[in-house]
Here is the input.
Amino acid sequence: MFDSDPSPEFDTFACSLDALVASIDARDPYTCGHCDRTGRISRALALRLDMRGESLRQLELAAHFHDIGKIGIPDHILHNPGRLEQDD
Here is the structure.
């Protein structure tokens, strides 16, 4: 995912984040790969806007992590094709 910082601490962090993203993908197979695509697109756009360094890294991190809340959403809500009821 991130290839701009070779430090061991960052590699450990990136692997942990990859595991969380895999959990998101497993939680909602319909959008599998969405977090990775969002991260790549965000990075490409940011580079076109001359964003570098820590700001670029934070943006890419946020893009990969943006659906983390899906992990805790019950299946009947996450996969509901229609409108949610008040009780949901």
The first helix runs from residue 8 to 27.
